[in-house]
Fold these 4 entries.
Entry 1:
Amino acid sequence: MFEIALPADAPFTVAELTAADVDALGSFLDARLRELIIRHEPGSGEARAAYALKVAADAQLDELRLPFRYDDGAPERLKEKATAWNSVIHTVWQWQGTDGYDEDRWRLVGYPAPEKKAEADAPSDPAAFVLGSEGYAEWKKRAGREGDVLREEFLNRPIRRPEEADEAPLSWRSDKVVVYGSVLAHSGLPRTPENENLWRGTAADALSVLAAGESIRRTILAGRAKHIHQGLMLGTTWSEIAEALGRTPDQVRAELRYWADENPDLYYGADRRVPVAALLDLGDDETVSVQEEDR
């Protein structure tokens, strides 16, 4: 049993990272994982686990390389770089203290807040003050790390029923379907010396994909009626919404009517100036009369 301290925060921001840092980190991690794979007997549990870790690490490295390769200078690109970099650092820190590990550069990074122009006459904004404070930045950084841990726990946890996935963010559920769906595709491949270590899906993986997929479907359908209502209130027509959904206007009306009847609190807090009944009576190409200032 051994203990390794969590990676320290870097004394620099993600803006100071370069493509060379990414290449060095990727080369180190790739070499270590290849060592693990060849060290064990092909087909053994250890070899399979090492190969699975390499597949996951390769996906992390691909996500890391993209924002560096296609950096258009947009502020959101810095956030993408920091998120992807820190994800890889959480994987590679297990080799801290070994030969070749760069203790100075391979640390968790933050990203600089966008510069704000001072406006002497601008009214005070308490929300902006809080969101721009150091305390909030530290809380957000800590919440991000905890969120990464929870996401990994969810992806590794078997799911047997849709309800077991309902509390997870949609992006996590989608990741689970994509990752394990890809693994299940390997199950039908014939075993050869070349793919002996291929990560193959199990019955438990198939159940997780089905349950997580059903959870996603239910969430999307539950929110769709609200979006239909919002679209109509903002000036779209039944025909336009039907085209967006690949359905007929009458089918869309039936969906809104069903959810309005079954979920009386569905539109709680939403714009109620036009009753649902009046929306249902609109012609296929009619729109709600919306004042310009309400748009």
Note: Residues 203-233 form the longest helix (31 residues).
Entry 2:
Amino acid sequence: MTGDLLRAFGQRVRILRAERGLTQQQLADAIGLTRTSVTNIEAGRQETLATTLVRLATALDVVPGALLDGLDGTAPAAMPWLELARAVTAAEREHRTRAESCWRAHDVMAAVRLRGIADGLARARDLHAEVVAATKGGDGRG
């Protein structure tokens, strides 16, 4: 990657990390790197391997292409399906959070019901991602 590309990539990682409320240390722990490495990636001083890119995307809850799309100065590809995936992920997290609260309150029936809904949302999101990948040639662009 060139210097400008590294800086743009790092800025995108920093923005996504901040949007998700993660510290550099939390992101580093999630992807198996040191906090210093995350700092260097965000500052555009460290190149990123493909495996690290995938781990970053997973930790930041985006597809790997979303980390790179448009960094070369071209317009990012339209990905309307991404908003659907984000909405489903948000709903899944909300149901899991509510299920945990129910468990703590010893409301087992509600906890099981909410956990089932969250699991169903996760499965629907995963199936949607598979369909999008197969339909759009693997990168989800349309």
Note: The chain has a mean pLDDT of 84.
Entry 3:
Amino acid sequence: MGRRRLPAGLRCPCGRRPDARGDDRPALRGGGPHPRAGQRRLRPLPGLGRGLATRAVRLVCGYAAAAGARAAVIQVEPGNAASVAVARRAGFAPGGQRFADDGTLFDRYVRELG
């Protein structure tokens, strides 16, 4: 049986979290397979759900507008509901879909910076 990956932004109550490659690594020390590999008791990281991403997007838009940008675009992979919610709360409107150079399909959200 292969290793399970923790979803991005979540960590196990025992303190383990996924690293950048998605491997399950201990947050402090220790090693070996995860002791709770079959359980689903995960809790969100402390910053999740507090509007920090929306605030960051709004701040970046303010800096971009001050630098002379006329519009901002956020590209989101279809099905990423959390990123769509951030874009909508930050004042972005749907702007169609686009394929990246590697063939990945993205939903675009656009905001005029005036």
Note: The first helix runs from residue 52 to 66.
Entry 4:
Amino acid sequence: MEALLRDALEPSRAEEGTVIWFAFKQSPTVFGVLHTFEDEQGRQAHIDGRIADALKQVGPTMFATAPEVRTTDIPTVSSRPPEREGPAPGPRPGGTGRGRRFHRQLRVDDPRSSTYG
């Protein structure tokens, strides 16, 4: 499962509507993903994208239970940007300044490797 989530990093970066994408591990068999999106269209594009397709393919054989999916509106956020040289990037074009959190918890029976094509 860790390899599957690692392989999802680059596709998540390519999704224009995905603002933040975290994969996390709670135990050897419990993994999760936390996503934020510019808007509902970004969220829907992610749900219809490559990462979701890959999870649908391996899900029936890899997951002990169906993924638990929760959506939450985030009315405000506080974070520290990473230190970098040059000006900080501005908001994405067309962004609303609001975010949506999309959390998926995955329970795994057999953590096997997989990649995205």
Note: Residues 2-77+98-107 form a domain with the Alpha-Beta Plaits fold (CATH 3.30.70.100).
